[in-house]
Amino acid sequence: MLPFDYARATDVDEAVNLLAADTNASYLAGGTTQLDLMKDGVLAPERLVDITRLPMRGITRDDDGLHVAALTTMEELAADSTVVEDFPLVRQALLLGASTQLRNMATIGGNLLQRARCRYFRDPGVAECNKREPGSGCAAVADSARMHAILGVSERCVALHASDLAVALVALDAVVHLQGMSGRRSVPLTQFYREARTSPDVENVLVHGELITGVTIPFLPATATSGYLKVRDRASYEFALASAAVALVTQDGTIGQARVALGGVGSKPWRSLEAEQVLTDAPANEETFREAAAAAVQGAWTLPGTAFKVELAQRTLVRALRNISGVAQ
Amino acid sequence: MAKALSRPRRTQVVGDTPMELSVNGRPYKLYLDARVTLLDALRDHMGLTGTKKGCDQGACGACTVHVNGRRVLSCLTLAAQCDDQEVTTIEGLAGAEGPHPLQESFVRHDGFQCGFCTPGQIMSAVALIQEGRAGSDDDVREYMSGNLCRCGAYANIVAAIREVASADGASAGRTSADGASAGSASAARAPRGGTDASL
């Protein structure tokens, strides 16, 4: 790890000003990505601004939904009584991610900003990485590694966005609240991320110094059923090979509303309006689910190592829809 | 930089980032390089080598300690971030009456082979029981999954934890399969943000 200055911010304005004044400065919250990548030599900020003491912690609810301050930890959000009762999708996605130790550290804002698990990105000894060094190429494409994305990718970059929570949140139409030098703004999470296909090195719409201050998660209709299904190499403490966040409102066997997002397969948390379109106004049955799954993976770009994910993602989505609709196989 | 405080028991100056930590109830005043992790601060600057450095990248759980009563990975925590915080390590578990029940249980059940992961396993297990997540073998496996044991002593680790959890809260072994809702186990759930003073 290269030397850096450590500064602790006491209010949001101070934190934003410290960052904005220094293009080589980064925020430090839970540290589970930031410090890891600094140890690897992938990130080398000259200054870390510790934001963990900022008054941005806690969860409130109103008619608009759940308001989660950005420094709330994953464990705190999973344990929140409203999340337990009304957001099974969020709770499942949280508890299926990482370990308890990491969930006690990692914040909600930081979770959304976690960097790719791509081992080429994380190894500065690998020269070709468009995410680290724009224009240098992509070593992952030349290999047959399997832990990469198939949607929103190209030969320029196949890095996966590995957050489970973000997949649940794009399905729920969550909105992120930002504060920067030019003021505050709110961005739907579905419009927050950029695809590796077009911009490997720019992963989201944040400008330097902009801070995530919170997330609003709207309620689903009271009659909706929802769930998060994660498929992985180990039973616990592993990233997804494929995952699905789904919600349905079904009446008399017909689907009225549908939400579908996929994880483990996209360079960003992958909301599939195509799958939702197939599901909406269709009978809730196996055939509909399979058709929706096929629509969800349209346009997949695969490598020999990732080709299996096209089928796996479809089966994962079909099973997730089956689970929440009670449709037998 | 010097503050007018009652003089901490131990002071060490090897860098320019100041921090005051309470570790196992003992105050430390340190001036360290900003890069020093809590793990390295404990081992190299406080002489507390019970906490182990396994992967040093947040994957293995060997460095698990409690900060303000919650289990975290000390290898991915800067020491400076723990300024004014309460840290508990494996050295802080035993009381005047002897080892912590989990330490005794790990010995009784042979819950280790080489022993390198053991401090992290035990620190994680103490928190696990406080979280109310030790109500079934499956829950223990799920919520201990961040602590790897390359010797493969898992079966005995689960048995050691279950024995203490069952003794700790009479209902701990009979609560629902949903670990996080198993907080009814009497002594099992510590208040969030509480310290480990009672350990």
CATH architecture of the domain at 225-325 in chain A: 2-Layer Sandwich
Unreliably modeled segments of chain A = none
Structural class of chain B: alpha/beta
Assembly type of the chains comes to heterodimer
**CATH topological fold name of the domain at 225-325 in chain A:** Enolase-like, domain 1
What's the CATH C level of the largest domain in chain B?
A: Alpha Beta
Give the biggest sheet of chain B.
6 strands, mixed
Strand-residue proportion of chain B: 5-15%
CATH architecture of the largest domain in chain B: Roll
- Report mean pLDDT of chain A, rounded to a whole number: 97
Amount of helix of chain A: 25-40%
Radius of gyration of chain A: 20 Å
- Shape call of chain A: globular
Counting structural domains of chain B, the number is 2
Q: How far is the first residue's CA from the last residue's CA of chain A? A: 52 Å
Please give the count of helices of chain A. Answer: 12
Described by the principal axes of the CA atoms, the overall outline of chain B is elongated
Question: Can you give a write-up of this model?
Answer:
- The complex is a heterodimer of chains A (about 325) and B (about 200).
- Chain A has about 325 residues and is of the alpha+beta class.
- Among the domains of chain A are: about 1-50, 2-Layer Sandwich (Uridine Diphospho-n-acetylenolpyruvylglucosamine Reductase, domain 2); about 225-325, CO dehydrogenase flavoprotein, C-terminal domain (Enolase-like, domain 1), CATH 3.30.390.50.
- Chain A is about 30% helix and about 20% strand.
- Chain A has a 5-stranded antiparallel β-sheet. Chain A has a 4-stranded antiparallel β-sheet with strand order 9-10-11-12, with helices on both faces. Chain A has a 3-stranded parallel β-sheet with strand order 1-3-2, with helices on one face.
- In chain A, helix 10 (about 275-280) runs antiparallel to helix 11.
- The relative contact order of chain A is 0.13.
- With about 200 residues, chain B is an alpha/beta fold.
- Chain B has 2 domains: about 10-90, Beta-grasp domain (Ubiquitin-like (UB roll), Roll); about 100-180, Orthogonal Bundle (DNA polymerase, domain 1).
- Chain B contains 5 helices and 6 strands; from the N terminus they run βββαβββαααα.
- Chain B has helices spanning about 40-45, 100-110, 120-130, 135-145, 155-170; strands at about 10-15, 15-25, 25-30, 65, 70-75, 85-90.
- In chain B, strands 1-3-2-6-4-5 form a 6-stranded mixed β-sheet, with helices on both faces.
- In chain B, strand 4 and strand 5 form a beta hairpin.
- Chain B is elongated.
- Chain B starts with 9 loop residues before the first strand and ends in a 31-residue tail after the last helix.
- The model of chain B is unreliable at about 170-199 (pLDDT under 50).
- The interface of A and B includes residues 40 and 52 of A.
